[in-house]
Amino acid sequence: MNFPPMMTEGSSRAFKLASSLPEVGWEPVVIAFHSVSGPEIEQLPFDVHYVGQEVSLSDHDAEQMFRFVHGLPQRKRAFPKFGKTRLKTGTWKNGWEKKARAVAGQVLLDNPDVEMIYAQAPPFSPHRLALELSGKHSLPVVFDCIGSFAADKLEMTVMHSGHCVVMPSRDLKELFLRKYREELSHGDISIVKNCFDPKALQTVGVKQDAGALMRWVFHIEMAEDGDLKRFFSGLSTFTQSSHAGREKLSFVFTGAGSVAVGRYLKKYGLEDFVEAHHVCSQREELELCMRADVYCLVLGRAEGHEVFVPERLYDVLGMSTSLAGVLPEGLSRQLILGVGGRAASIGSSDDIADFLQDTLYLWRSKQLPVVSDVVARDYHIQSAVQEFLREMAARLPLF
What is the dihedral of CA 154, 157, 159, 161, to 10 degrees? Predict the structure, then answer.
């Protein structure tokens, strides 16, 4: 998983859960991927044992680091080789996995009071390693499945292992139940939902009034060329309207999919609108979201989009920000509409332009809805932690 400077999909969830445990008397010990060093890196509230190499923020440009922390392909020789594979976040094989096994084994030997293992997938390597360590050290496991993924021969072994299996949403659970209709029951999978941590948001800062400038954060995920072309065509039409201009609008692009937006910004002449891109620091991204008037999820139609919700969206629920989405039907759209946000289809550039224009009108008339504190309370970290502790207690009777 990627710990600071950026909490990406999966690591954000794991970090929040791990950070909450000391308050209830548990001491987490984390095994993570390559470490990142630099002046922006904050002290973690628990011990982390890094398996790979240390990468310095000062040694690589913003795009290289953005690709690294998001586990995206790097251009050749951007980073040194590690074991038998070139260093890149998300690669769980060959030299890395061998070393992970050794590090995990040593951590358990050095900490004989460890009572439970937590492992997250996809990819499957952490689950495979957790299953192996569980058998060797007689420890229960919490297997966390955070997204849909292709069938793997280990999948049913994990599901029928007798250990705890959790997922972040009922929709994802139902997907697995349909996939293995004859082999799984509702009791085989529990739900520990995603959440926001108000303590983490309090350290970021407060929203500042930008006056006549309307700030947008566009979080892009699972968007292929057709999706991006329609979105940026609609965005271009919106900016060229008589009611918008470079002095009135500010754009930030976040999410793993934003690495591909550069050529569209150039093609449509939108570069001057961009306040920040290739954001590699969690703190910086949260600050940009906090300052935004609108946080808009741009979600494409790649496989698995129906049950995908970016973890950053849950952080934004605690910011009293207006939520929007340009996306297909699915769980993300349901969540945005369910908390009072607004949405448009990703399928039509004209509809996207109209939607963005309507949002601008609402903002100017001070009628743009924001997520209320009452609604946000359902996504507070306390409820997620209680669900997590409940599952731990069921496997540890003396807890």
Answer: -140
